[in-house]
Amino acid sequence: MKPARSQRPLEYPYTWDQFAHGEWACTHVQTRLDEWLPRLFGYHMLKLGGLSCEMVTGHCNIQHQVCIDKLNPLRNMEAENYDLPFLDKAFDVCILANQLDYTDDPHRLLREIDRVMIDDGYLILSGVNPSSLMGIGRLIPWRKNRLPWNGRMFTPLRVRDWLGVLNYEIVEMSCFGLIPATRHRTCGVWFENACSGLLPAIGSLYFIVARKRTYPLKPIKPKWKLKKSLSPVSVNYRTGG
């Protein structure tokens, strides 16, 4: 298993237009996101990265939304992902769309997101499944330097384990999109319905909804029990002479 931390420089995407089949991937992620947005409540939402900034969340109940990136024109703030300029437990929801594969230290990024998340807040993230047909495409030599194949592509099970260490409960984890169908979408939908049983294993994209759980520490009170002392029973008797 490759280490989570990387020493090589990574090209950080800031728009879906940089991706091969970016419109197709964005549409799939947006469809899953639309199913969850009406269920989310709170005061503040964080959309981290340019790809997250382009996700449509205007119909969400959370009105105050902060979009962070350095290049995407939809951003309303610039900041370092590893050092977010917010107080602890400031956001109710965080969206991280296809950004985890392009960070050199995903553990550090998740810890920083966890810092600014309130208790019972929701983290929604997506990425490319390396075990899919799309993920295997990174083995083709002329694709190694193109997005999304130049990313690190962590498996959804590995991401789930990282979230579990941070005490996140996985509410939903699904894979979808067997093959990128941009031109013949009708055939693509038919093919996915026919092979729906394979989607959990080899879907091109994964979508995870996790909820932060914080369990308070309760002191365990010692149970004091008095041990009964054993003493010989005195018996009065007489012996006749």
TrEMBL record:
SUPFAM superfamilies for the chain: S-adenosyl-L-methionine-dependent methyltransferases
Transmembrane segments: none
Xref: Pfam families: Methyltransf_11 (PF08241)
All copies of domain Methyltransferase type, residue ranges: 76-125
A Gene Ontology BP annotation from the UniProt entry: methylation
InterPro entries per record: Methyltransf_11, SAM-dependent_MTases_sf
Protein name stated in the entry: Class I SAM-dependent methyltransferase
Natural source organism: Grimontia sedimenti
